[in-house]
Amino acid sequence: MTELIQTLFVAQRRRSDQQRYVRFVLFLVIMTGINQAIQHPQRQFMWDDKSQEIISEWKEYYDKCSIFLKELEQNGPANLVIPKKPAIDLTVLFPAKEKKQPLAGKDLHEHLIKNLIHEEGFSIIIPLSHVSGVELSNLETVKQCLKTGYKALQKHNATALVAHLDFGEWLCTAFELFGLKKSAGEIAGSWGSWLQKHVGVSERYDRELREMSKLLSRYPKFRKLGISFKDLRKHKSEIGFLLKNDQFAAFWVQR
Fold first, then answer.
1. Residue 234 CA, distance from chain mean position
2. What's the pLDDT tens digit per position in 6-55?
3. Rg, the chain, Cα only
4. Of 136, 177, 161, 160, which Cα lies nearest the Cα of 213?
5. Which domain range does residue 21 map to?
């Protein structure tokens, strides 16, 4: 009986040892897998050989920079050489963004028409502090305030645009007079210097204003646009082509 008990005990211990061993092996397998995943993460994106080479060069550069900065911080700049940056920039790995094509022709014409202001209707921007809390909690009321406010903004833009174009015409007149005076030997120096000294306008801004004023001088409808001078100037070249079309020009020549 005693021998049987001892045999069963030994067998049970062996089974326990085997179970512990199996659990230990499983633990090692799991930890090895985690360690490999950390050190060598699986790539989901498939790079070509050339791109992978660029990435490897930048990784190596990053490691060198880390060591360099640690040495610089601890020991100072003596005998240190800044790591050389890879010859190929990382931006080559990113797809180029497609440039948005500028509005032109009919699309530009329709875009500008949508921004023409209309005199009829109420237009004012009401300060928020002048509106009651009850009205501010009503979306319909807020919507109407936004609509009238936007009309006011458009009229403000139109007023500013007209001022820019009028000022551009004054600059055109001054430019011609300056040229006559300079040809007659009555004045020295350049137009840009004279303008900066006596008016305070830069040569670049002067050129933008004069170009737009000359381009639109025969088309008064542009003065009804509720957009800024800057936004209109972005389309300068396209507007020039637009006005070569008799159909479009006939619309913008109206008052």
1. 16
2. 554 445 555 555 665 545 545 544 555 545 555 555 557 788 888 888 88
3. 38
4. 161
5. 1-42
pLDDT digits (tens, 9 = 90+) for 196-216: 999 999 999 999 999 999 999
Nearest of 254, 247, 242 to residue 111 by alpha carbon = 242
User: For residue 222, what is the DSSP state?
Assistant: G
Q: Is the pTM of this model over 0.90?
A: no
List the structure tokens of 6.
């001892």
Q: Is residue 165 part of a domain?
A: yes
Query: Please, what is the angle between helix 139-183 and helix 191-198, to 10°?
Result: 120
Output helix, strand, coil percentages for the chain, rounded to the nearest 5.
70, 0, 30
Place of tokens 């009919």: 106
Count of structural domains within the chain: 3
| SS3 labels along 55-103 | HHHHHHHHHHHHHHHHHHHHHCCCCCCCCCCCCCCHHHHCCCCCCCCCC
Shared domain for 115 and 240, answered yes or no, is yes
Distance CA 216, CA 166 (A): 11
Q: Of the residues 94, 128, 155, which one is the last residue of a structural domain? A: 94
Residues 117 and 82 in one domain: no
